[in-house]
Amino acid sequence: MSSTMTLTGRLTGTPELRFSAAGVAVAAFTIVTSRRVKDQNSGEWSDADTTYWDCKAFKQLAENICASLDKGMEVVAVGRAVQESWEDRQSGAKRSKIAVRVDAIGPSLRSATARVEKTSGGGQGRQDYQQARAESSREGREDPWGSGVPGTQAPATGGWSDEAPF
Q1: How far apart are CA 138 and CA 159, in angstroms?
Q2: Is 62 exposed, middle or buried (0-12, 13-18, 19+ CB in 10 A)?
Q3: For residues 76 and 65, what is the distance between their CA atoms, to the nearest angstrom?
Q4: Any idea what the Cα angle at residue 65 is, between residues 121 and 117, rounded to 5°?
Q5: Closest C-alpha to 66, from 79, 57, 76, 54
Q6: Structural contact between residues 69 and 75, judged by C-beta atoms closer than 8 angstroms
Q7: Alpha-carbon span 29 to 57, nearest angstrom
Q8: For residue 6, which phi and psi values (nearest 5 degrees)?
């Protein structure tokens, strides 16, 4: 069982949008949180308890995040902590980390304003991805010497997979 958590912090970079092999949108981003403390002797402010939170969101929320949020923005995110496990490719060692699956996120209005626009929820990004993938596959079949990617010399066959890399 996982508890809901709320993070208030800043995006360390622009959220990255990718699509799974099944066409599901996935947004990956990092939120940094810290607490401001005042040194009683010097009177100066500094950050304390700084934590970097790896976050992921899925489907329409992922697409909306990437269309709306950018590096440096202060955000308020609600999600749950999950443990991600994988095997290191180089050493074969098992690794894990705690990440946040974001259920809702928006800009903090403490020092900014925002204009909200309702989306149709049609998954336009997924449709664009599937159309680009189909066109790329078609180009690869029509050009036996090309990879379907301009500027590359790799053949269309011989180990290249039609599967998305994630």
Answers
A1: 17
A2: buried
A3: 12
A4: 55
A5: 57
A6: yes
A7: 9
A8: -120, 130
Task: Tell me how far the alpha carbon of residue 155 is from its chain's centroid.
Answer: 31
In whole angstroms, give the CA distance from residue 163 to residue 150. Answer: 19
> Cβ(72)–Cβ(54) under 8 Å?
no
Tokens of 41: 């002797």
Alpha-carbon span 14 to 43, nearest angstrom: 34
- The pLDDT tens digits along the chain (166 residues) read 668 999 999 999 999 999 999 999 999 999 999 988 999 999 999 989 999 999 999 999 999 999 999 999 999 999 999 999 999 999 999 999 999 999 999 999 998 898 888 877 655 566 665 666 666 555 555 545 444 444 444 444 444 444 444 4
**For the chain, how many residues are written?**
166
d(CA 134, CA 148): 11
The stretches of 36-165 forming alpha helices (DSSP H) are: 59-68, 124-142
Query: What amino acid is encoded at 23 in this protein?
Result: G
- Residue 127 sits at φ, ψ, to 5 deg, of -65, -40
pTM, full prediction: 0.68
Q: Are 56 and 16 in contact (CB under 8 A)?
A: no
CA distance 44 to 38: 6
